[in-house]
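Hello again, I could really use a second opinion on something today. Take your time with it, there's no hurry, and the full record follows here:

___
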Amino acid sequence: GFTPDRELPIIGRIALGSLKNKLVFLLPAALILSQFLPVLITPLLMIGGAYLSFEGAEKVLDALNPHDDAMDDVPAAAIDAEHEKKMVSGAIRTDFILSAEIMAIALAEVAAEPLLTRGIILAIVGIAVTVGVYGVVALIVKMDDIGLHLAERPLGAVRALGRGMVKFMPVLLRFLSIVGTAAMTWVGGQIILHGLEEFGVHGLPGWIHHTAEAAGHSVPFAGDVIEWLVGATGAGIIGLIIGGAIVFIHHKLPFGKKH
């Protein structure tokens, strides 16, 4: 909903907010947690997994039952600085939760390292993830403008490439939306299943693991791929069930937040 000249500045502001989330707030909190209360790492990971599941399930619900957005019909040029500020603030808040999950996952991998080493590794992870993610976001957001620029070049092949990029962008964005939703439910479910195993609850995680192994063994020429797909599907279903329950509580019950 923003004009092209505001796209990169907005992404830059969100990226800086994300970096602040990771380095100023989450990094010290993660180090204190790992030093004094490491037993809380797995429960926090599971809470983050539940949040990812919730986000994925809510996107599925919105796709099945779309609702009108009040900003859909507002021309981009009419969107004021106050709305831009609100959008950036909302994105940074969401980023904080996702960044907490990323830092918690990284922390779980280096929990046995000395405190200084943990701090350095988490700082590197935070910076690398922020630069990588928002660099890709910036490239995707400006891809149509790049294509439009190429479409105005005199060379026929370059013009054709530019037109193709412009036409391809809606397809890419729809594909990314589907993949992103599936990834949130799968990763969220997988984190929860792994957390259950950490707490000694092996029934459901073990059943999904053994089912995936059996499916993989039944197709020898693509066993690893089939095993991964079945395992990811099982985790995604668990994530969708848990996320759906949270969506119901959040939106449907009297004390929840309705659209």
